[in-house]
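Hi R.,

Here's the chain you asked about this morning:
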Amino acid sequence: MSDTKIAQVSPDLGYDRHPASARILAIIGFSTVALLVAIIVGVWVLYVLAEQKVEEEHVGKVYSDELRAIHTREEEQLNHYGFVDKEHGIVRLPIDRSMELLAQEYAQGKTGYNTKTYPLRPEQPQGAPGTPAAPGGAAATPATPGGQTPVAKH
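And here is the predicted structure, written out as C-alpha cells:
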C-alpha cells in the first residue's frame, strides 16, 4: 500500500457557507443584460451608419457622363435665358424670373390664363406607329366605368 495520507480540512479553512445575496445576484444579472443590450444596440447603430455611408458613396453618385450632361442641360434650361423657337420669337426665361413675372401679373389682376378643362386625348392602341408600348404589356389608358373619357384639370 502507499503512504498517502488524506489531509483533514478544518471547517475554518473551507469554502464560504453563507447563502448568496439575492441583491448582489440581481445587480450582476441586470448589469450583464444591460451590457449585452448596449453592445447589440451599438453594433446595430454602427451597421446602419456604415450602410448609409456605402449607399451615399455608391448609389448617390452620378456615374454616367451622359447623366451628368442631362443634369447640366436641365440646369441650363432652368436658370438661363434662351430661344425655344427663334423664328416665332418664343424665348425661355429662367424659372426665378418667370415666377417673379407671374407674381406681378397676379398682383395686378392680369392673369388671363386658361383654366378650362379638356378631355384627355385617347391613347393609341398598343403597337400603333409612334406610340411606345406600355410597361408590362398592359394598356396605357386607365379603365373608367361606362367607357367615359377621363377629364384633365389644369
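One quick note: Residues 134-149 have pLDDT under 50 and may be disordered.

Cheers,
M.
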